[in-house]
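User: quick one, fold this
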Amino acid sequence: MASYNRVLLMGNLTRNPEIRYTPSGTAVADLGLAINENFKNKAGETVEQTCFVDVVVWGRQAETSAEYLQKGSPVFVEGRLQLDQWENQQGEKRSKLRVRADRVQFLGSPSKSSEFSAAPTSAPQDNVPQPPPHADDDDDVPF
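Assistant:
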């Protein structure tokens, strides 16, 4: 039987990204993601449920996530489920299911800065030549 492990999530970060580095220098960032769902129950009342998901991001994407994201940032995460298993100090076996992100897309707008603001546009001046209007000629269309 074939298998498929793909996760698509959109939500907001529950905390600032926590970045660390492996001994070989690879960046690893841990993200907490909250996904809200609103629905109406049988009584017609609106109910809000929140699903909390742990996400791990590797490499350059981990570094950019730690640099540009913060608690509350909206993100879209694409990845796969990963089961981590370990033994605690008392010898008990533990496990945790989390998402290993292949891609983290930042959905929020960057903070407002003067370098990102658009310059005001002005009407064209009379002494600047304007390009000729395009003729509706279908002969130049490549298809």
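User: anything notable?
Assistant: The chain is about 5% helix and 45% strand.
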